[in-house]
């Protein structure tokens, strides 16, 4: 029989490096399979030698703001459960991202973050992390729905690709459906206690109730602040994408670009995917949407791939390095190896 001591040695000194190797290999395989990666990388290097250089640098700086806001959201949600420093929240966010890149809709993110919390707080923190993700999806859904109605209002003036073959009736039908879902989601977000009440009535749900009860007592002030951080983070996403579209000479029309980006984010939020695999879907969707306003297909792909590399892959690699440094076993919070 394997002793508990051997298990602890494995978890503390072997699991982190193994996860890092697995994640690194997964990222390498995905990157090496991208046919336009070399051309895109060359174009990004050329951009650094032009007047657009500051825009590419700004996108990288905004990446830090992007994940910093996500860490701030998580720290805010944890307040009723456990106090954590901003530095540790940021590290936990990156570690969660390292797990997320290989899981559908980034569900592995929760497992990565809880490593930075004491054992008795980890399960309860998952429900709080879900609230943070819900707030971000809520913003994406609401803004995307508004963009869809803008599309409908200007339906005749939009040059749709011929192979879409959309009937005009489907645009308002989808708009009304998403409007209803958005309204219900907003109501549920501020009345999350209804979920707890419903769970209490499920037979055999007693084991999960302690995990949900921390959500039941979340103050509305925290929910509002978290929603505000989500709105700000969404704005950072959009600004990053616009800067890349301008850098690669796709379009300088900021309003139209923001509108199409919101539609893209809406569709990506609806489609189940794995973060490492979604670049193909993201690239194809970007070509369909931005192809309505630009014939620069390489620039469109470069912007989509650039935002993926800068916002997701780079931070995920840093997060996987952080995983190596953490000690998984113990009654207190995870400690970093010296």
UniProtKB/TrEMBL annotation:
Keywords: Cell membrane, Membrane, Transmembrane, Transmembrane helix
Presence of keyword Transmembrane helix: yes
UniProt topology in membrane: Multi-pass membrane protein
UniProt cross-references to InterPro entries, sorted A to Z: L-PG_synthase/AglD
Name of one Pfam family that matches: LPG_synthase_TM
Cell compartments where the protein resides: Cell membrane
Chain segments annotated as transmembrane: 9-28, 52-69, 128-153, 173-192, 222-244, 256-277, 298-324
Name by which UniProt lists this protein: Flippase-like domain-containing protein
Species per Swiss-Prot/TrEMBL record: Flavihumibacter fluminis
